[in-house]
Amino acid sequence: MEPPVSQPQEQTPRPRSHTVTTTSSSFTANLSASSSTLAYDREFLRTLPGLLMVTEIGLCFNGSAFVLYLIAAIVDASSVTKELDSHNYNSWAASSFFAFVVTSCYAGNTYFSFISWQSRTLQ
Q1: Is the dihedral of CA 115, 118, 120, 123 positive or negative?
Q2: How far apart, in whole angstroms, are the C-alpha atoms of residue 108 and residue 19?
Q3: Distance CA 91, CA 77 (A)
Q4: Rounded to whole angstroms, how far apart are CA atoms 55 and 64?
Q5: Pick from 31, 72, 78, 108: CA 20 to 30 A from residue 42's CA?
Q6: Number of H helices, E strands in the chain
Q7: Distance between the two ends of the chain, CA-based, in angstroms?
């Protein structure tokens, strides 16, 4: 025996009190439209926050490169000895010298990146 089928009841429409509108940003639309590549916003890079972000990334990169090259130069310099059979003294001394030259270049670049970043934050 089948259950009785109930008749659908008509519901009276309720008055709408609040209307909700949703929008999507262009970034979300671009992300869903092209999922294979992410495009950067060139206009954002021309604004002050965009320039500060790029400068901070450069400052962090140069600072970390300076620290890593400094560690490498110190290790390289401490491994140079005048023992006759261990290695070529002149080659290791030259590599130590140029390691400190590269370290000083990264130190200068970090300094100038910091000055650039500081002058932009003060404006």
Answers
A1: negative
A2: 59
A3: 11
A4: 14
A5: 108
A6: 4, 0
A7: 84
Which residue in this structure is represented by tokens 């970043």?
117
- The pTM score is 0.56
Tokens in use for 44?
A: 């954002």
Tokens of 52: 């500060």
**pLDDT grade for 32, boundaries at 50, 70 and 90:** low
How many residues does this entry show for the chain? 123
What are residue 73's phi and psi, to 5 degrees? -65, -40
Tokens of residue 119, six digits:
């002058």
Cα 78 to Cα 74, 86, 94, 99: the distances in Å are 6, 14, 13, 12
More confident residue, 89 or 95: 95
Tokens (6 digits) for 26: 């262009």
Residue in the structure block whose two tokens are 């009190």: 17
Which two three-digit tokens encode residue 73? Answer: 């130069």
